[in-house]
Structure formats: C-alpha cells, structure tokens
Design brief:
Number of helices: 17
Number of strands: 41
Shape: globular
Helix content: 25-40%
CATH class of the domain at 455-565: Alpha Beta
Largest sheet: 8 strands, antiparallel
Strand order of the largest sheet: 26-27-28-29-30-31-32-33
Amino acid sequence: MSKQQRPIEKLLIANRGEIACRIARTCRELGIATVAVFSDADADSPHTRACDEAVRIGAAPAAESYLKIDAVLAAAARTGADAVHPGFGFLAENPQFARAVSEAGLTWIGPSPEAMEALGSKVHARQIAQDAGVPVLRGANDATPEAAADIGYPLLIKASAGGGGKGMRVVRDPAGFEEAAAASRREALAAFGDDTLFIERFVERPRHVEVQILGDSHGAVVHLFERDCSIQRRHQKIVEESPAPGLSDETREALFAAAVKLGEAVGYVGAGTVEFLVEADPVDGDRLYFLEVNARLQVEHPVTEQITGLDLVALQIAVAEGGRAPLQIKRRGAAIEVRIYAEDADAGWLPQTGRIALWAPPALPGIRVESGVESGGEVSVYYDPMLAKIIATGADREQARRRLCRALEQLRALGLTTNRAHLLSILKHPAFVSGDVHTSFLEEHGVSAPSLAGPRGALARIAACVRELSRPRGYAAPTVPKGWRSSRFRDAELVIGGEAVRWRASAGGWMIGVGEATHAVSLVGRADDRDALTLEIDGHRRALTVVDDGDRWHVGGADFSVTLERNPPFPLPEEEAVAGGCVAPMTGTVRQVSVAVGDAVSAGDALVVMEAMKMESTLRAAEAGRVSEVRVSEGQVVDAGAVLVVVEAEPA
C-alpha cells in the first residue's frame, strides 16, 4: 500500500452532532479508534462521549470552532490520529482542509482536493456538466439585474459554494431582485465564507432527484441508485426516499448514466451525490437538468444504506485505504427518511433554541434513528436546527410510510417546538400517499400541523393537571397558591396555559373541567418512565407523556407536542407594545438594520434582518407609520421576544 492508502488505526471526526455519532458507530464496528473535537458549547454533547477521545478546539462563537483547520490538525497530532473524516457541513467540502490533512501525512476520507475544487463551485460544476453532455438549466454566472432580465422571471438566486438551501432565493419580478440578492450574499458569506452567487431559470413543480455515487482510486465510479428529495422547506430537504415514486425506468437510467459520467469526468474518489431537477413533460417525457455535486456524505445517506444493505461510511474508509468500490449492488425494498428540526413550521419555519426537556426516540421494527441530542441538552443558536433523522424501511413504499408514521407518533421530543406533527401531516396527506411529490408540495397543499385548540388542547391540560395532582405527598409548587391541592376543597382550580382547569376528587380519580366540558379521569397506570402516563378519560384510555419543568408542563401525544405555562399567582407585566414595529421571533444575531429613527415606513417594509442557525429571516413592518425607536445594532445577539424596532402610526 502507498502512504496514503495504509490501514487506518485512529480516525479524527472533524464534525459534531448526529453525523459524528454515526461515524463513530461504524468505526467501532471496524475496530478503529476515534477522536472527537468540540467547542465550548458542545463540551457535554453526546458526540464527545461517542468517541474514545475528545479534544477541545475553541470557544464562542462556537460555530467557528469547527472551521479552524489548524486546531483540528493539532488535535489529530496530539492524539496520534492517522485519518480525518469531515462528516458533512463545516469543512467537509473545503479543498484547503483536505490538502492540509494529506500534507500532514494523514489519510483524508473523501474526494481529492482537485475534485472538490472542480465541483465545489456550482458555477464550475455547471460547466463540467455541460462539457460532459449533461443538460443544465439556463443561467448566468453573475447575479445582476441585467443577467436576470436576460434569463427572465421567475428565477432562482443561488450561492456558488455550499448547499442546504442557504443563500437561495426565488425571485418572481424585477422589483424583488436587489433585496433577494443582498440577502443571499449575506447568508452565503455567513454559512460558507464565500458570497459568490449565480442565477438559474426557476422551474415550477419539478422533482428533485439525486443519485448516490462512489468512486475508488482504481478508476471505477458506480451508482447506488437514486433518492427523491422533492419535499423541501426554504429549499432544504425534509423528506427523502428511495426508490423515487412514479419515476420511469428510462428517466432513472438516464439519471444513473449522467451521474456516473460526471464522476468519471473529474476522477471522483469516495462517496458523493449528483443532484438533478426532473421536469415532467406529458409529450416528450421527463426532462432532467443537472443541479450540483455534493462532494461529501449526504445527510440522507441512510436511505441508500437501508435499500442496499451497505454501510457508506465503511465504504468511504475502505476506498480511502485503497479498496475497490462494489460492482454488484442490488436494491431491496423501500426507505423513507424525515428530518426532525427544532423549528416552528407554522410560523415560517423559525428555528427554535433552548433546552430539550425530554428526548425519547422510538424503538420499532424497521426504524432507524440517527441523533446527536439527549434529554437536558441545549439547542443553541450556533448550529443547524436539525435534531435527528428517522428512517423507515419496508418491503415497499407503503409499508415504510406506515412504519414512519408510527415512529413519529411514538417519538417524544419535548421542551421546544419541533416539526414532528408537521411531518406526520405530510406523510398522511393523500398526495404524498399517492407519490405525487414535487418541490412545491408544501406551498401547493398548505400542509400544517393539527390545531392545538379543541380536543388536543383539552387533552394536554387534563394530562398536565393529573401530573400535578399525582405529585408525591407534601410537594407544593412555588407558583401555586398555598393549599390549592387540599382534598378538603370540593372544587379547585389551576390555570394551565392561560386557561382555567377545574377539578375535584371522585371515586378512583377526578372530575376535571376544561372549558364547558367536565370529564371523568383516572390514572390507570404509570410506566417505569416517570413522565409516561396512561389516563382513562370518559372510558377512553390514552398514553401521554408529561414532563414537569418547574413553571411549565411539556405534554406529548401521538400527534401533538405542546408546552403549557403554569401561571404564577400574580399576573406578569403586559408585553411591551411595539405598534407596527417588530420583536425578535427567535434568539439570533441582528445582521442588518434597514431603518433609522424618523424614517417613514409602509406595511411590509423590511425593518431588521436576523440570522439564527445560518438562516436569515427578514422582519417587516406590520403597519404604516414612523420609526420612533431602534433598539438594536448590527452584530448584536438578541433573545426571543426582545423589542427591536418601534413604529408609531402617523396621525390621520
């Protein structure tokens, strides 16, 4: 073996979260020792314990710690690691990092720096695709109003570096071009350190289909079938599956051939993904267009692993050691993956930060869970809001879908808002069930999580009330009026989530009133997990989870999760009014202040641009008026609920 293809003994994982845990698991199976690196924000994270050793590489701002090439290489030298796996994100597609790893005498788990340089820029990758005879969308390498006018609207502004939907904006008319381009540049620079943009024709309702490839140092490039990633929010995938539903055999084979051709054109070594748009044409058949190559392991790689029986991380390591790519690859069954995000899907996908009160993933047949979080862990503003991935495998798509629905129903992720219920609504939507998926799925179908008003809200309040009533004898919550639980009261009242809940003891349980209805409730059983309750409500038994978190209850059921405030005995001050101004909808960094005191604004005008977890949100005026106060400056970190700008209405 050459120096670069020696057996690996100890591997440093230059990443964090679920991907670091996942790589460590394969290394354990292969008998390879592992080293984790961590920022101060991640000092107690699960990935630091998943590895044999861990090295601190930086303080806040925590996200930048994982981008420090010198610190990562120093950690490898300090621990005697002889290989580096970059995971995905951070330095995974950085050719300078790959080159530095090799020059330090370490084995790099990934494509060559030359391949990264050729494919890392989407502009250059487009040219390679064209030279290889693979169709591309009409576009321009400069994001200017003149180029946009030449292409025509609608169009898509894209960051040349990176991916994950960052730096992407759809523009439907010339009036919105300049603002969208400026936002894309800021977002791309923050996420990738490169604000280069290009533009392409925007295709309405296409399929987003990608092909997994694997190349070796002996010149072979093979495909491992396709994944459909059409269901997205903010241009970022949330549901991925294989086989792609409803795709013709001709289109499938054309995708495979184009992906392999691109890999061969750059001498690709390692695992990578070639992404395409597929545009349906009822007359001439599907049209496919090259999008980009992700020269790394993808977030959704478990989908391919489940339908091939292969371990892509093990194959990456084998190829880096000089091994050959497998030539006989068979597909079996179907797999679907969903991404669990800490975000409020019904509030514009706003990322959520805070403490995870309970993380309890399901353990069911055909279900695989990849996560890097745990109960009590913090979701910070520094990182992507993805908490985990849940992958279901079945003999066919319908079995995989049903299993995934069941897994989501049993998942308990309490303490902050997630997209769990929203994902369930997608998986159960008739269009998804039939396989009619495309990139405008969410906009077209208006999929949303079930309402927490009505029966679900009542159920949550009943569960919180029972959790309070079943406390150990002698406990008194500090915010509850003294003596409120005493059985000498025929009726008592507790305010839960802003609504009065009445209760009184009855034989074997309680009579609990929420709104106009009163229910007979009894605690049937209690699992070993102290937070799990089985309640019988008017003869109907329900399994629920309730976490008592001081001044709040976190309640989870099969299709809902909610946090209910335990109202204090004295009212809190009213929230400060800001008229037509804005408050921070999330904890994050102020990237741009677009107004000054005295400015006149109209409803819908941009006031402040905030960034959290590398995604931007523009906060706009709710009504016309004049800016009376600007309380923040660019670069300032603010908490959710902080008043940013006050706009006062002009006198009539």
